[in-house]
């Protein structure tokens, strides 16, 4: 049954066949079928199973690759509880059975439904909650004895990510040529070259701050706020990009851009930027007892570094989405050619050369517009570095 069918099905016996609930039954054998399955993320990557949790509460089912699922499960079950930080309850993880349905994203993670009130940077009480929660996370997790399990998110890892991005942009140059925009390729590659040549400045800005657990995607859509009798608590989720490294990617999210999309680097270290840096000030107030050797300027610099790290993430995701679109279109053509409806057989029979196909322009307009936006952002970041904002 497709995600769309599951989302509108009324008969619980139909919902009982959905791969997400079949996987959930292996975590909770006594569970009755959900009264409804809601799609929270496109293509069924994240679903809400209504009424299957403790006390008929809702459960969030997320499907992902094995490596991502393992990291998230480990953080929920073995790190956050020891740090006594608020977080959604994790009920467990299982491997899925339906390979045709899931493709290579064949693992399910089940967590408590954190609700529908999301973090807003426009609300001062939310800003304070986020700043304190991140400060407590970074200081307490910096002493973890079991960080080897976590993926590397050090400045060295981001440098390798930059190099990988540059190589992939060059490989995808024919796509840009389709739009008559070869100049954008050269500009982005040039920005990557310039950024790499100044990477020592980024490393110097990071070296004073201890490595710790970093979320790396600490955006409002991944943070819920729940009212309780003792006040509001923060419930961050979606730890699939998390790892062990400098807290800069998380600190960057404390720069209040009031809904303007990155990479519009707003007033980092500028005299009139006090309002947008309010979150960083609250963060410093939380961490300075544990890290007394660091001053506010240290974290203002890290906010700029974190913006750069985030843009590198975004560029990588955009390039990867173009690769997935090309592969998906190739698989469709393969299935049509072979007369099969089996997604996985098409995936397996696809050779690397067959993914190098032209995509319709409608497929490419949005990701290419995003890349041009990030091109501008990287250029802005380089301008800040050249003007001495990391010193």
What keywords describe this structure?
about 400 residues, alpha+beta, Phosphorylase Kinase, domain 1, Aminoglycoside 3'-phosphotransferase, Chain: A, domain 2, 2 domains, 3-stranded mixed beta sheet, 15 helices, globular
Element string (H = helix, E = strand): HHHEEEHEHEHEHHHHEEEEHHHHH
Shape: globular
CATH homologous superfamily of the largest domain, by name? Aminoglycoside phosphotransferase (APH), C-terminal lobe
CATH topology of the largest domain: Aminoglycoside 3'-phosphotransferase, Chain: A, domain 2
User: What structural category do the secondary elements indicate?
Assistant: alpha+beta
Number of strands: 10
Number of domains: 2
Oligomeric state of the chains present here: single chain
| Rounded Rg | 22 Å
Low-confidence stretches: 1-12, 257-274, 341-355
| Proportion of residues in β-strands | 5-15%
**Count of runs of 4 or more consecutive helical residues:** 15
Strand order of the largest sheet: 1-2-3-5-4
The proportion of residues forming helix, as a percent range, comes to 40-55%
User: What is the residue-averaged pLDDT?
Assistant: 82
Which CATH first-tier class of the largest domain would you pick?
A: Alpha Beta
Distance between the termini: 57 Å
Biggest sheet architecture:
5 strands, antiparallel
Identify the CATH architecture of the largest domain: Alpha-Beta Complex
Describe the structure.
With 391 residues, this protein is of the alpha+beta class. It has helices at 3-8, 12-15, 19-27, 66-83, 99-102, 124-141, 155-171, 173-178, 182-197, 199-206, 248-251, 278-287, 296-338, 343-349, 361-386; strands at 36-41, 46-50, 59-64, 90-95, 107-112, 152-153, 212-214, 223-228, 231-236, 243-245. The strands form three sheets. A five-stranded antiparallel beta sheet has the order 1-2-3-5-4, sandwiched between helices. Strands 6-10-7 form a three-stranded mixed beta sheet. A two-stranded antiparallel ribbon has the order 8-9. A hairpin with a 4-residue loop joins strand 1 (36-41) and strand 2. Helix 13 (296-338) runs antiparallel to helix 15 (361-386). The N and C termini lie far apart (57 Å). Residues 1-12, 257-274 and 341-355 have low confidence and may be disordered.
């Amino acid at each position: 049954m497709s995600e769309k069918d599951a989302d509108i099905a009324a008969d619980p016996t139909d919902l009982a066949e959905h791969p997400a609930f079949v996987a959930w039954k292996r975590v909770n054998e006594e569970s009755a079928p959900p009264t409804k399955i809601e799609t929270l993320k496109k293509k069924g990557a994240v679903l809400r199973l209504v009424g299957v949790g403790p006390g008929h509460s809702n459960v969030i089912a997320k499907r992902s690759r094995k490596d991502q699922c393992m990291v998230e499960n480990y953080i929920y079950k073995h790190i956050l509880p020891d740090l006594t930080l608020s977080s959604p309850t994790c009920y467990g993880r299982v491997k899925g059975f339906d390979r045709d349905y899931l493709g290579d994203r064949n693992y399910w993670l089940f967590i408590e439904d954190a609700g529908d009130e999301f973090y807003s940077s426009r609300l001062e009480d939310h800003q304070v909650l986020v700043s304190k929660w991140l400060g407590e996370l970074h200081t307490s997790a910096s002493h973890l004895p079991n960080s080897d399990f976590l993926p590397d998110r050090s400045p060295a890892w981001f440098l390798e990510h930059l190099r990988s991005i540059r190589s992939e942009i060059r490989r995808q140059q024919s796509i840009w040529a389709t739009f008559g925009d070869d100049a954008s390729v050269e500009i982005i590659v040039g920005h990557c070259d310039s950024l790499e040549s100044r990477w020592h400045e980024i490393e110097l800005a990071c070296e004073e701050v201890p490595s710790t657990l970093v979320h790396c995607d600490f955006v409002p859509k991944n943070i819920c706020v729940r009212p309780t009798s003792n006040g509001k608590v923060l419930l961050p989720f979606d730890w699939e990009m998390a790892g062990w490294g400098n807290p800069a990617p998380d600190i960057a999210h404390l720069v209040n851009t009031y809904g303007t999309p990155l990479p519009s680097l707003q007033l980092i270290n500028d005299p009139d930027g006090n309002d947008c840096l309010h979150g960083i000030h609250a963060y410093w107030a939380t961490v300075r007892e544990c890290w007394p050797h660091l001053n506010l300027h240290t974290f203002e610099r890290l906010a700029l570094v974190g913006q750069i790290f985030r843009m590198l993430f975004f560029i990588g995701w955009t390039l990867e989405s173009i690769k997935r679109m090309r592969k998906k279109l190739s698989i469709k053509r393969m299935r049509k050619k072979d007369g099969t409806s089996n997604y996985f057989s098409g995936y397996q029979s696809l050779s690397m050369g067959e993914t190098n196909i032209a995509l319709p322009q409608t497929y490419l307009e949005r990701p290419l517009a995003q890349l041009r936006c990030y091109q501008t952002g990287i250029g802005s970041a380089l301008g800040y570095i050249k003007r001495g904002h990391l010193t």
